[in-house]
Amino acid sequence: EQINKGKYEHYMQKEIHEQPESLTTTMRGRLRRGGSTKAKTVLLGGLKDHIKSIRRSRRIVFIGCGTSYNAALAARPIIEELSGVPVTMEIASDLVDRQGPIYREDTAVFVSQSGETADTLLALEYALENGALCVGITNTVGSAIARNTHCGIHINAGCEIGVASTKAYTSQIVVMAMLALAIGDDAISSQARREAIIDGLFDLPNKVREVLKLDQEMEELAKLLIAEQSLLVFGRGYNFATALEGALKVKEVSLMHSEGMLAGEMKHGPLALVDENLPIIVIATRDACFSKQQSVIQQLHARKGRLIVVCSKGDAAAVCPGGSSSCRVIEVPQVEDCLQPVVNIIPLQLLAYHLTVLRGYNVDQPRNLAKSVTTQ
Ligand code: G6P
């Protein structure tokens, strides 16, 4: 065990810190840099005979549980943008409970680190019965999802041992960004956008290396939050998923109540919870939603909210209404908007990790949870 953890004390810690490498492995052999005559493109071998059918499908439905669902949610906007195909999201158990409509013209994408989650497998069985084209995105070669889908992509993040998923999450997002690029590959109008994303993917491991330097800062923040009862995380757009996933990490391992919320829903209930005691993390990195997040921060500030803001490097003054004394700022490197969730989740993974260690709980095997839930 000790050998596998290398210099780290816990698998979760190791898996958080190895993300520059796991992301590099995820992308290996799949991105073409282009040249003077060739365009920059993505090659996804496991999909090559099916990409046209996916492009022509009437709808893409993402199906998963837990962190895998959140990864799909993070990728949804870029899939919609580059494919032009409507995308809907399904939590696997809920799709099966409702027996929700799935059609022959649908592409159903099953996202699962283990490839063995019972609820996701039941949803796969259901989608196959209904005639959908079924695509698997998994970290486990030979798993039930890899075997029973029509085609798929392995995320190649390497074995993940910590029950709380970290490196698989970021690799799943990158794989789905590559899926978006592959589906949209035939559209001239979005070529510049696709090339910018490919450049961003090449540079992503470096940016992740940079954001991991926040480790100590997140440990300091964890010390301040150690005794809190509750934590809220607000995000929107590409980073709605970051809010859900950040809150999920904190609750899974540190056993602190935390909720991720869509910032656009703040006035429809959550605002009632805001006072000078409850810590609130707001994700406000630069993208099309930035000015809306600035106004969310102002409204929380006006109600004396205890703010912790994740923003792009150099934006501290732009996000803190009353200067740095009014809120704590976590500055992260800016990347292409659709890849920003990969960078933004990392300080929250580190926060969850340090909170857990400081509170004295089991990091790698949190109470009552299993790495792979193979029963209903
Ligand atoms: C369990 C694990 C989570 C994981 C979820 C889905 O709840 O504790 O970390 O996100 O299952 O697992 P999967 O293997 O399908 O991604």
Automatic annotation (TrEMBL):
- The answer to whether keyword Repeat applies is yes
Which key words are in the record? Aminotransferase, Glutamine amidotransferase, Repeat, Transferase
UniProt protein name: glutamine--fructose-6-phosphate transaminase (isomerizing)
What Enzyme Commission number does this protein have? 2.6.1.16
The record's catalysed reaction(s) read: D-fructose 6-phosphate + L-glutamine = D-glucosamine 6-phosphate + L-glutamate
Q: Does the keyword Transport apply?
A: no
Source organism, top-level taxon: Eukaryota
Q: In which pathway does it act?
A: Nucleotide-sugar biosynthesis; UDP-N-acetyl-alpha-D-glucosamine biosynthesis; alpha-D-glucosamine 6-phosphate from D-fructose 6-phosphate: step 1/1
Q: Which residues form the SIS domain?
A: 50-189, 221-366
A GO MF annotation of the entry reads:
glutamine-fructose-6-phosphate transaminase (isomerizing) activity
Any one GO BP annotation for this protein: protein N-linked glycosylation
